[in-house]
């Protein structure tokens, strides 16, 4: 087919309201998700300009970044409390549905919105959060925006933008035992680097991707932003449609079947050209863990911490030196020999039910190492409720994990969940930047399986010894 | 949005590559409901460490290495940079969301070739007092006291809005009838 289009191009074109020659497109937004951190200034601007929210029915809100996960009835930090209360007031004043601390749907934006069925194939979705790329797992075009754009979407349900180029990341093969979607994504990032996706919408294709369930697909799309891409997406299929059936925002009965017919058309045309293509052999992907302070630094557990001396490029050598200095680890040491102090299982990357099930299968009947503080922070209240229904909370608690309430927790360190200065945390979250989990905190990124095995051993551990 | 057409200033350089917005302003300082007074938190975790920042207090131009502003979407990073006094950032690459956020606030991001960035770093290292002249109209970066000029690309729509200092929201609102028509067809 000549002039074939990619999935991202199709969704983009369907949402262009108006575009002048050489100008940006006024792009219509189907779903807008709000949280307490990146919205107060947007609402303040609306008040100042005497503007209303154009489509409160296409907008939902929750609080996640600031909320405590030990006792959610008491926010001790006055600034956090004010931010959460400001969101409550803004939603009330502007008629927006808030799934707040009194709602069974409260949770991390990127966990709770899909649970509600708020994200559907072919939609454009935005949120003042870079991990909005998560929602591409449904075949939606979903990307993070700044607060000025939050204001624009609230006022007009549109943003002003030019399209990104399309990039394909193709992963063929069968995922091996002990390897998870997180490892696949760490492998993708190690291949493309942290700016390999800059300027692109990434579409993930290939047999390995197709065989992932929707939660695993969310893990993949979630970390697209770690590769610099604005969005990551996967064409919708039966797995997507089955997940969506009977969810709150999804139409029922005949209307649902009609929707499915439309959704089935959402795929990249055979003749379409991607501006960039990357291939990975999925059969060869093994469990990975990051050694440095960027998410593309994933290596195998039996590999050694790299030596900057072997890096020819001067600025990369400097960056590696700086990372090693921050991490306080020595080149030549095997990753699996490195001790850890904290374990975090949770976040918008790996805080869903299947992630907790993964970790629980290793934890069951075992004990957390006495030197380790280990937390499970379910991504949403619904995840927490479902996990408790199948007894996962007991498995974790009996092993010595703390079983907590839902929120962003120590992924971002702006709430009460703080890891002390200088400690090592193996985390299932998405960013290992300097200071991300708190000043001086050193982060290793890995999968929930690796987190579980490492919690038991008290050092970085390949989960396959327990499977 | 603050208008911007021409600026002459000394330069502050940041040596590190891939500076993410968590470095520009750590998350614990995002607990604010206003855009003001965030400059004091700029690069907060870097203080008293060897960061490679050449200080030129009061300079309005920041010279950075590749992929500046990657990571989190926090617009607080832009507000902190502007509150500190920056109006222009020069680099060979920017995080996509950060780039957008900057231009929507009147903080000009200039993208030059990697070789040109290297050259600029060399010039500033040699003489930290070098003045640089930015002209948005002619899309040039000129070294004062030296005939060297670099040209940069910028989207014409954004260029005109930056020069006028006009908020883009007005443009979208002016086309409200088209949004209404679009909504009728959903």
UniProtKB/TrEMBL annotation, chain A:
Pathway: Amino-acid biosynthesis; L-leucine biosynthesis; L-leucine from 3-methyl-2-oxobutanoate: step 2/4. Its cofactor is [4Fe-4S] cluster. GO terms for molecular function: 3-isopropylmalate dehydratase activity; 4 iron, 4 sulfur cluster binding; metal ion binding. Keywords: 4Fe-4S, Amino-acid biosynthesis, Branched-chain amino acid biosynthesis, Iron, Iron-sulfur, Leucine biosynthesis, Lyase, Metal-binding. Its EC number is 4.2.1.33. One of its GO terms (biological process) is L-leucine biosynthetic process. It comes from the Bacteria. It catalyses: (2R,3S)-3-isopropylmalate = (2S)-2-isopropylmalate. The keyword Amino-acid biosynthesis applies. Residues 9-458 form the Aconitase/3-isopropylmalate dehydratase large subunit alpha/beta/alpha domain. It is an enzyme of class 4 (lyase). Residues 306-316 have a biased composition (Basic and acidic residues). [4Fe-4S] cluster binds at residues 348, 408, 411. Residues 299-319 are annotated as: Disordered. Binds 1 [4Fe-4S] cluster per subunit. Pfam families: Aconitase (PF00330). HAMAP family: LeuC_type1. NCBIfam families: leuC (TIGR00170), PRK05478.1 (NF004016), PRK12466.1 (NF009116). Belongs to the aconitase/IPM isomerase family. LeuC type 1 subfamily. Heterodimer of LeuC and LeuD. Catalyzes the isomerization between 2-isopropylmalate and 3-isopropylmalate, via the formation of 2-isopropylmaleate. This is 3-isopropylmalate dehydratase large subunit. The gene is leuC.
From TrEMBL, chain B:
SUPFAM superfamilies: LeuD/IlvD-like. Its EC number is 4.2.1.33. Transmembrane segments: none annotated. The keyword Amino-acid biosynthesis applies. The keyword Nuclease does not apply. Keywords: Amino-acid biosynthesis, Branched-chain amino acid biosynthesis, Leucine biosynthesis, Lyase. It holds the Pfam family Aconitase_C. Residues 15-114 form the Aconitase A/isopropylmalate dehydratase small subunit swivel domain. One of its GO terms (cellular component) is 3-isopropylmalate dehydratase complex. It catalyses: (2R,3S)-3-isopropylmalate = (2S)-2-isopropylmalate. InterPro entries: 3-IsopropMal_deHydase_ssu, Aconitase/3IPM_dehydase_swvl, AconitaseA/IPMdHydase_ssu_swvl, IPMI_Swivel, LeuD. Gene3D superfamilies: Aconitase, domain 4 (3.20.19.10). GO terms for molecular function: 3-isopropylmalate dehydratase activity. Belongs to the LeuD family. LeuD type 1 subfamily. Heterodimer of LeuC and LeuD. NCBIfam families: leuD (TIGR00171), PRK01641.1 (NF002458). This is 3-isopropylmalate dehydratase. The lineage of its organism: Bacteria, Candidatus Gottesmaniibacteriota.
């Amino acid at each position: 087919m000549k002039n074939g289009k990619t999935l991202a191009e199709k969704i983009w074109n369907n949402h262009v309201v108006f575009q002048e020659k050489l100008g940006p497109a006024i792009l219509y937004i189907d779903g807008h998700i709000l949280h307490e951190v990146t919205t107060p200034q947007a609402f303040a601007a609306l008040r100042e300009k005497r503007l209303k929210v154009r489509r409160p029915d296409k907008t939902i809100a929750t609080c996640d970044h600031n909320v405590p996960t030990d006792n959610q009835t008491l926010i001790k930090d006055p600034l956090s409390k004010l931010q959460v209360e400001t969101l409550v007031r803004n939603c009330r004043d502007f008629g927006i549905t808030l799934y707040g601390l009194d709602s069974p749907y409260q949770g991390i934006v990127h966990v709770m919105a899909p649970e509600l069925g708020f994200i559907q194939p072919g939609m454009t979705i935005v949120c003042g959060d870079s991990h909005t790329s998560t929602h591409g797992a449904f075949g939606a075009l979903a990307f993070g925006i700044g607060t000025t754009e939050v204001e624009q979407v609230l006022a007009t349900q549109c943003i002003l933008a030019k399209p990104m180029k399309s990039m394909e990341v193709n992963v063929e093969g069968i995922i091996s035992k002990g390897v998870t979607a997180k490892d696949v994504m760490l492998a993708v990032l190690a291949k493309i680097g942290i700016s390999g996706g800059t300027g692109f919408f990434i579409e993930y294709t290939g047999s390995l991707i197709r065989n992932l369930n929707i939660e695993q697909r969310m893990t993949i799309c979630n970390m697209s932003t770690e590769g610099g891409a604005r969005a990551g997406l996967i064409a919708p299929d039966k797995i997507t449609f089955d997940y969506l059936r009977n969810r709150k925002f999804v139409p029922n009965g005949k209307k649902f079947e009609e929707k499915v017919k439309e959704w089935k058309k959402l795929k990249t045309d055979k003749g379409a050209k991607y501006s960039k293509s990357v291939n990975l052999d999925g059969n060869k992907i093994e469990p990975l863990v990051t050694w440095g302070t960027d998410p593309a630094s994933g290596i195998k557990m039996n590999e050694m911490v790299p030596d900057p001396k072997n890096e020819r490029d001067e600025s990369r050598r400097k960056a590696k030196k700086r990372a090693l200095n921050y991490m306080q680890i020595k080149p030549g040491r095997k990753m699996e020999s490195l001790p850890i102090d904290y374990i975090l299982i949770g976040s918008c990357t790996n805080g869903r039910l299947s992630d907790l099930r993964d970790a629980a299968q290793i934890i069951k009947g075992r004990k957390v190492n006495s030197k380790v503080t280990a937390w499970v922070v379910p991504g949403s209240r619904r995840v927490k409720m479902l996990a408790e229904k199948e007894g996962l909370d007991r498995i974790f608690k009996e092993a010595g994990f703390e079983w907590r309430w839902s929120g962003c927790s120590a992924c971002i360190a702006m709430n009460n969940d703080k890891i002390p200065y200088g400690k090592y945390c193996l985390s299932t979250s998405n960013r290992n930047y300097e200071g991300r989990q708190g000043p001086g905190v050193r982060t290793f990124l890995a999968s929930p399986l690796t987190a579980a095995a490492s919690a038991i051993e008290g050092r970085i551990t390949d989960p396959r010894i327990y499977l | 949005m603050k208008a911007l057409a021409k600026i002459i200033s000394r330069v502050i350089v940041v040596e590190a590559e891939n500076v993410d917005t968590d470095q520009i302003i750590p998350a614990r300082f995002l607990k604010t409901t206003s855009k003001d007074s965030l400059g004091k938190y700029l690069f907060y975790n870097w203080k008293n460490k060897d960061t490679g920042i050449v200080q030129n207090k009061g300079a309005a131009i920041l010279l950075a290495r590749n992929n500046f502003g990657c990571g989190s979407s926090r617009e607080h990073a832009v507000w902190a940079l502007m509150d500190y006094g920056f109006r222009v950032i020069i680099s060979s690459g920017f995080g996509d969301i950060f780039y957008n956020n900057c231009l929507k606030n009147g903080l000009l991001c200039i993208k030059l070739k990697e070789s040109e960035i290297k050259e600029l770093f060399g010039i500033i290292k040699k003489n930290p007092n070098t003045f640089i002249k930015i002209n948005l109209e002619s899309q040039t970066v000129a070294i004062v006291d030296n005939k060297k000029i670099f040209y940069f690309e910028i989207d014409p729509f954004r260029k005109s809005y930056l020069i006028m200092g006009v908020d883009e929201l007005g443009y979208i609102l002016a086309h409200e009838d088209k949004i209404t028509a679009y909504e009728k067809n959903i």
